[in-house]
Design brief:
Layout (H helix, E strand, L loop, with lengths): L9 H54 L1 E2 L17 E5 L3 H12 L5 E5 L3 H12 L9 E5 L2 H4 L5 E4 L11 H22 L4 E4 L4 H13 L8 E3 L3 H15 L6 E6 L7 E9 L2 E2 H12 L18 H23 L4 H15 L4 E8 L11 E9 L2 E5 L6 H18 L6
Length: 417
């Protein structure tokens, strides 16, 4: 009978099998132990959740003044899946916001409402045609709140009258006030639990008007805020980052006050990667062997600005930025669209992010006027939860008070009721 030949590698193969079996057995045991440990950790985590929420609220209360009487625990964290945002006013700004929302996958339902039904249906169709490139999103459009914005989590308001040639700012605000009196009640009725983000200009006054009208229909304080100087602050950070040669996401600086000519750049709290901005500028000047200020160099040409001169000029560029863009293309839209989507994200995800948005300012930073203007605010699922009273330099506090007075001078002449 034929002899079976032993494979010269048989013993080695058997050894490999035995070793593999041992490794598999050990891995199974390790996996089981890991599951047991993970389960124990999860139980411990769940037990500590309520106390963690309480600790977070205690810290919040220590650093910020609540807008609502009692700061509520954070909502259960979740993805934005299933959330609905409605955009009211679907011109260039509104559609930039809508595009940013769907492109980032922040919503599963999007409402587009505009007085021009033909245009808004076309805008909705144009977005839907990109469905193959987006996360699933249901888009509805129309001209009335009861058909479009029902059950929204966030309502972004970009609608408003255009300024007529020769029309005063007060005249424009009065016409917008008439529009908002008609528009806001149906929006509140359709989405009584929504957070309302006002982007329409002048956004500080329009936020105050929206809050006043909404409060008459049961909307509590904090659930209405304006985009304010959130975009101005982004422009500020961008221009600082360009001059300093770093990422804008690591430059932390605010523009506060009015979204307009009286806005206040806050250099005293500005920082770069945890370093005070003034120290960062001095360090950069030393590295580049440039004078920090004009007085630091006797040989410096008067036509050559110092780093500090460049930085001091940035706030003027921030104020001029919108005017320059409007002169060139007729309107601004992409950056404010991105900013609006980011504010929506902070609400939907209950991030409790600190953002410079337009909020009730009376009593903060010594402000004596009952106006809306931008201050650092904690934004979460219920809107603005608190205002952070940062320590300002004396000249910054005075400028902020002057900004409040400038808004009050216009708002004070309005017949709000």
């Amino acid at each position: 009978s034929p002899q079976l030949c032993r494979c010269p590698h048989a013993t080695t193969q058997h050894t490999f099998v035995r070793r593999a079996h041992v490794r598999a057995t050990a891995a199974t045991a390790s996996h089981n132990n890991h599951n047991q440990v993970s389960a124990q950790q999860q139980i411990a985590k769940e037990k500590n959740m309520s106390s963690a929420d309480a600790d977070a609220d205690a810290i919040m209360a220590a650093v910020a003044k609540p807008v609502i009487p009692v700061l509520q625990p954070a909502a259960t964290p979740s993805s934005a899946a299933g959330y609905k945002v409605s955009v009211v006013g679907c011109g260039a700004v509104g559609m930039a916001c809508a595009f940013s929302l769907v492109q980032q996958g922040l919503v599963s339902r999007l409402g587009l409402m505009d007085i021009d039904g033909t245009r808004v249906r076309a805008e909705a169709a144009d977005l839907k045609h990109g469905a193959a490139f987006l996360k699933p999103v249901e888009i509805v459009s129309g001209t009335t709140a009861d058909k479009v914005t029902v059950d929204s989590d966030v309502v972004v308001i970009t609608a408003g009258m255009r300024q007529r040639s020769g029309e005063s700012r007060l005249g424009l605000v009065e016409r917008n006030l008439s529009l908002f009196r008609e528009m806001i009640p149906p929006l509140v009725e359709a989405s009584p639990d929504a957070v309302f983000v006002v982007v329409s200009n002048p956004c500080d006054i329009m936020a105050a008007i929206t809050a006043k009208i909404a409060s008459e229909h049961g909307v509590p304080p904090g659930r209405v805020f304006g985009s304010g100087t959130y975009l101005d602050s982004s422009r500020f950070r961008h221009l600082l980052s360009e001059r300093l040669g770093v990422s804008a996401s690591h430059v932390h600086a605010y523009i506060l006050g009015e979204h307009g000519d009286s806005s206040v750049p806050v250099f005293s709290t500005a920082s770069l990667g945890g370093l005070r901005l003034t120290d960062a500028i001095k360090g950069l000047a030393e590295r580049l062997q440039e004078p920090v200020d004009a007085d630091d160099s006797e040989t410096q040409s008067a036509a050559t600005p110092s780093i500090f001169d460049d930085v001091r000029a940035i706030p003027r560029k921030v104020v001029r930025a919108a005017y320059d863009i409007i002169d060139a293309k007729g309107y601004t839209n992409w950056a404010i669209g991105l900013a609006s989507a980011r504010m929506c994200e902070a609400v939907l995800r209950d991030e409790r992010a600190v953002m410079p948005v337009s909020v009730p300012a009376l009593g903060h930073q010594g402000i004596e006027h009952d106006v809306y203007l931008s201050l650092p605010a904690v934004v979460g699922r219920r809107g603005v939860l608190a205002v952070v009273d940062v320590k300002l330099a004396e000249h910054e506090a005075k400028a902020l008070a002057a900004s409040a007075a400038a808004i009050h001078n216009v708002q004070g002449d309005l017949k709000m009721s």
